[in-house]
Structures are given as structure tokens and as C-alpha cells.
Amino acid sequence: MIRVLVADDEPLIRAGIRMILTSADDIDVVAEAGDGREAVEKARGGGVDVALLDIQMPVMDGLTALVELNRAAPKVRVLILTTFGERDNVLRTLGHGGAGFLLKDSAPGELIQAVRAAAAGNAYLSPAATRHVADALSATGATTRGEAARRRLDGLTTREGEVLALLGEGLSNADAGRRLHMSEATVKTYVSRILTKLDCDNRVQAALLARDAGIQPGGLQPRGH
């Protein structure tokens, strides 16, 4: 079981998150907190795999709690959940070692997926957050990064390039499948193949490569399937 701590200063929000997470048979909400300090104290005692923190909380905000958890309970993976999707919050989450960032209007399935990804040691960003990261990095060293990224993409097929282009746009597997008229499972297979070929740890890294390489909707030049 993946043991989760949920921290939010609104009890109704915590109750809704608990209901969503416990609907998955491999996730258990073992603790709740109303502020960041309480979250750190409860996670420090052990028994928590993933901490799901709101950004705006009294006493201690979620990003400060993330830093404290990295010191006090480094094995706990931290996801930031908020209504505020500003670029700075996304970059600060990643810069402080957070396992992911998603918005409160995310679909219930995405929340469950994010917790599973974090527990498995992977990074997870909502599609909107992926776009923020890509945009923030696009103006720094663009020419050098672009050349290096295009070289790494040389081994992709046409269809893999199309899927990668949609990752660069921040689309989920389901949205990419609808765009390409493929099932979500098929897109997931392509994503796994792309990550292996590009030696990327997660879809966020692949999305950044796509943006650096300047891939437009439609993907790479034809190479066959």
C-alpha cells in the first residue's frame, strides 16, 4: 500500500482528496494535516510514503514544508497540489526537490496517477505545469540546447515524433490519444518507448527535449513507423 499524508487547511478539500485516493485499492490516506508544520511533524514520525501538500496554508506554507520534509524525512516523496499554477511555484517545487506539481482542477484519475508515480520514485507534472517549465527554460541557451536535442531525436520514428510533439504541448496520454486517434494504452506504449530511446527518466524531460528541438504539431520528418 502507498501511504499518503494529505495537508490542506480546508477540511472539505482534505475529505474530497481522501475519498479520491482511497478509491484506489493500492493507496491509503494514513494522516491529515491542516498546516505545513503539522504535516512535517506527522511525516517525521515515519509511516508516510507520499505527502500531498497545498501551497497556501497557515503557520507554514506547502513549499516551506517541502524544504523541511527534505531535511526531516528525506524518504517521503512530496507532491504539491494547488489552485495556483504560476510558473514560479512550479519551478520552486522542482528546485526544492518536489516529486510533482498538479492543480486542484486535475481529474481524479490524474491525482491517483501522480501519487503512484511519486511513490515509484518518478516525477509527475500536470500538463499545465509541464508547459510552465518548458516556457521558463525556452529562452536560456536555446540554440545550443536545440542542436543537442535534435541530435537525440534522430532515432525516433514518425509516430514517435508525433507523440513526443504532443508531450511537448503538455497533453496527457488520453488527450494525445484523441488527437492521434489512438487508444490511451497505445499512447502509453509509445511514451515508454520514447523515454527509453531518449534516455529520459520521465515524460517531463521528454517534453522539454521536444520543446528544445522545436518540434511542431505533427512531429518529426517522416522516418516510417
Outline:
By secondary structure, the chain is an alpha/beta fold. It has eleven helices and six strands. The chain has a six-stranded parallel beta sheet with strand order 2-1-3-4-5-6, sandwiched between helices.
Task: Please give a handful of descriptors for the protein shown.
225 residues, single chain, six-stranded parallel sheet, DNA-binding, 6 strands
Structural commentary:
It contains eleven helices and six strands. The longest helix has 15 residues, at 184-198. The chain has helices spanning 11-22, 36-44, 62-72, 87-95, 108-119, 127-137, 142-152, 158-168, 173-180, 184-198, 203-213; strands at residues 2-7, 27-33, 50-54, 77-82, 100-103, 124-125. 53% of the residues lie in helices and 13% in strands. The model is unreliable at 221-225 (pLDDT under 50). A six-stranded parallel beta sheet has the order 2-1-3-4-5-6, with helices on both faces. It is globular, with a radius of gyration of 18 Å. It starts with a strand and ends in a 12-residue tail after the last helix. By secondary structure, it is α/β, with parallel strands linked by helices.
Q: State the total count of DSSP E strands.
A: 6
Structural class comes to alpha/beta
Following the backbone from N to C, one meets helices and strands in this order, namely EHEHEHEHEHEHHHHHH
Rg, Cα atoms, Å: 18 Å
